[in-house]
Amino acid sequence: MNNTPIKITDTVLRDAHQSLLATRMRLDDMLPVAAKLDEVGYHSVEMWGGATFDSAMRFLNEDPWERIRRLKEAMPKTPFQMLLRGQNIVGYKHYADDIVDRFVERAKANGIDIFRIFDALNDTRNMARAMQAAKRVGGHVQATICYTISPVHTIDGFVALARELADMGADSICIKDMAGLLSPFDAYELVAKLKAALSLPVQLHTHYTSGMASASCVKAAEAGVDIIDTAISSLSGLTSQPPTETMVRIFDDTPRRSGLNLDLLAEIADYFAAVRKKYASFESGLIGVDVNVLRYQIPGGMLSNLISQLREQGALDRYQEVLAEMPRVRADLGYPPLVTPSSQIVGTQATLNVLMGQRYKVVPQEVKNYVKGLYGRPPAPINPEVRKLVIGDEEPIDCRPADLLQPEFEKARQEIGDLAQSDEDVLLYAIFPQVARPFLERRARKVGGKEEIIAAIAAKIAKEKAALQSAVQATSHLGSLWKRSARRRARAFGGWGRW
């Protein structure tokens, strides 16, 4: 048994708000507490990657690269960790190798220390380039197993995958249980077998959705896991991670005591409790444990976003139907683990199957690309009937998908032109062109930031002032009419008192 102190990675600045608040937390709400986070002594803070890159530009009008730099200035002591989707980087498709290389290099230069690299299909071909790039720039490569349950996934299979990742140069292994499916005793068995097979540190990332996360972390620690992911209590639970303070206290009276200060953590929790209220409109509406995740296997971040999207479409009443359709679509597509982008692929097709009233009547291009093999090798063969419906007689590819892509960086630089002031800006455009161009245009016009907010507030105040003046004038006019009318009535009825 591992008797060294359990190490803690806090996800409050990334996965916690991605899972609970649809990734809407602004940098301005992170910076005031950054110095306190830096004093805790975390193994790392997960603060970038995943959906934050896209959401920062799309919804918050923020530069995701600036987020790293500003937080690093405020938190110089704490290692920064990001979630990197292998060849998908932080997007939803495969990008050319030169984009992967440049992205990883700039991420490290801006302040990322640990790269948690995964592939949605556990296809190691899609992880290799990002792992090599991170090693080349001196980053810590945390190669990741996407944990899931299906007829084709086994614990021994995950151990074999970890061995392959170790041979590819991993510095540590992460068990990424994105939907909270890992039961405590399976956690014990998986970690024990990983520790017996490898000499690398093992980290566990799980979600509280099914209610098993805390117990799974404890059993994983008993089996020797080195690091666990938690979230500060006020942004924990539900579809997020288990609460940091709870996990710290659980290990306090054991040889695996973390040494983290509960009083300091309580102050940080109070801060985020107040911040969370500002984003209440993005909450999923879940009020407790959802054991349906054991049937549908939907990861935390996807669940909150799915509810939000169905609500926007006025189709929230079809939520349970969409959930029930997801396992059927997943089986059709060869049992991919449900994590970005495969979760979006399965979720979108399931939603269309329900809303259209006919399965696979409408098939998005992403689903067609998946069936063609452009996302990688599925864990199991795709249903032949569904493949026929989706791509007809076309044969799927059998090579690494990125081998089909031409270099993209210089082409992106030419297309975005003077709007890009740095390689980081070019990468914004290369990965999310439709989002990055308007973002960079707003920046060039100096709108969308604080200046625009101040102008909007001033315009609102002026509008309200004008409306108030109009109301006063109207009231004054009505008052004059009332008085003249009252005098006439008074004369007609012999005096004011009778009226």
Description:
This protein has 499 residues and is an alpha/beta fold. It has 21 helices and eight strands. An eight-stranded parallel barrel has the order 1-2-3-4-5-6-7-8, surrounded by six helices. Strand 4, helix 6 (128-136) and strand 5 form a beta-alpha-beta unit. Helix 5 (97-110) packs across helix 19 (423-431), helix 7 packs parallel to helix 8 (184-197) and helix 14 (319-332) packs across helix 15. The model is unreliable at 451-461 and 474-499 (pLDDT under 50).
Distance between the termini: 94 Å
Poorly predicted ranges (pLDDT <50, ≥5 residues)?
Answer: 451-461, 474-499
Mean pLDDT: 90
Helix/strand-derived category reads: alpha/beta
Q: Helical percent range?
A: 40-55%
Q: Radius of gyration, rounded?
A: 27 Å
Percent range for β-strand residues: 5-15%
Overall, the morphology is globular
Main sheet?
8 strands, parallel, barrel
User: How many strands appear in the DSSP assignment?
Assistant: 8
Numbering strands along the chain, what is their spatial order in the largest sheet? Answer: 1-2-3-4-5-6-7-8
- Summed up, the helix count is 21
Report the order of strands and helices. Answer: EHHEHHEHEHEHEHEHEHHHHHHHHHHHH
Question: What secondary-structure arrangement, pairings included, does this model have?
Answer:
Layout: E1 7-10, H1 15-20, H2 31-40, E2 44-49, H3 52-58, H4 64-74, E3 80-84, H5 97-110, E4 114-117, H6 128-136, E5 140-146, H7 155-167, E6 172-177, H8 184-197, E7 202-206, H9 213-222, E8 227-230, H10 244-252, H11 262-278, H12 293-296, H13 300-312, H14 319-332, H15 342-356, H16 365-372, H17 384-391, H18 409-416, H19 423-431, H20 433-444, H21 450-492
Parallel strand pairs: 1-2, 1-8, 2-3, 3-4, 4-5, 5-6, 6-7, 7-8
